[in-house]
Amino acid sequence: MSFSERILNWYAEHKRALPWRETKNPYVIWLSEIILQQTRVEQGMPYFFRFLETYPNVTKFANAEEAEILRLWQGLGYYSRARNMHKASKQVLELHNAKFPTDYQSLLKLPGVGEYTAAAISSFSSNHAHAVLDGNVFRVLARYFGIEEPINSSSGKKIFSKLAEEMLDRNQPAEYNQAIMDFGSLQCKPKNPNCAECVLRIDCRAYESGLVNVLPAKIKGKKSKDRFFHYFIIEHDGAVLMSQRSEGDVWANLFEFPMIESDADLNVAELVQMEEFQKDFGLSVPTQIKGQIKHILSHQNIYARFYKLEINASKLPKKSHWNYFILEKLDTLAKHKLISSFVEHYF
DNA sequence: AAGTCGGGGTT
DNA sequence: AACCCAGACTT
């Protein structure tokens, strides 16, 4: 039996029932695919339902405020996905007369839609013959063919991309694409794959050569950097001073409290000596609210401290990214996890 | 080709 | 602590 036949047979028995598999609506599939980029199915599922309910079609999405979309996206991470979705939805209104495209090339032009997502939407919605290549497919192919080229190298991407297209079942691209991803996710897992009962085992090169736990090979990235954030809770007349993060750094455009970053951890005495502190807050003395919180991201470890700061409003500098919000409005702002968690138990 | 962009689960 | 997740984009 061929590779794709075995994958499809396995899929017929083990497929997951996922809500976005019930539709061929490219808008709904796009919604699910963007949400699922680098995101587990279980984590993305509630967001998928929330977005579909709030924006039932691409026109509703395009006409929404970006701030509202970001708030709905809150907690999911990689927030540029939400901003790109808004741009993409507007592009669909203007260039495609509000009819969501299904052809690979048009999809590829949408912000936030890369080769994987274009292949996914075009195949799932219209059964177009484009092979998906995500983390699952990389793993299945690397192991089955015993390819030791790193999957995140330039040459590796070319090799696997070509191979994925060759293996695609062109008679049923949509079904095959779903099948190989489920196979990678449930059967050919990163750790402890179920080789004991695997339809590919008889000619799996990695199994044959004992490389299952080595493949796929990957070039290691840089080590995480440590950053130290000091947040200041400044309240006046039932309103809290919030700051909107700039672009070009983590959590672009999201809201948080005014803060100062330092190269190393500081105690209060060292903090108030910082030039930046004195420039913004003068001789005010911060009162630490709780202990240090460690917030781990893929590429940086953030150590945060929160302080209450009593200061006369007239002594604060005016900054375009600083604004007061009454407590009731605080919930409507899109905040990153570090801040939303704090707000949840503090206010 | 390498770096950046989140949050959470698994091992 | 390391790795990974229905990746895309910038430098």
TrEMBL record:
Domain HhH-GPD: start-end pairs: 35-186
Keywords: 4Fe-4S, DNA damage, DNA repair, Glycosidase, Hydrolase, Iron, Iron-sulfur, Metal-binding
Enzyme class: hydrolase
The record's free-text note on cofactor binding: Binds 1 [4Fe-4S] cluster.
Keyword DNA damage assigned: yes
Gene3D superfamilies given in the database record: Helix-hairpin-Helix base-excision DNA repair enzymes (C-terminal), Hypothetical protein, domain 2, Nucleoside Triphosphate Pyrophosphohydrolase
Xref: Pfam families: HHH (PF00633), HhH-GPD (PF00730), NUDIX_4 (PF14815)
Family membership: Belongs to the Nth/MutY family.
NCBIfam families: mutY
Protein name: Adenine DNA glycosylase
Source organism of this protein record: Sphingobacterium cellulitidis
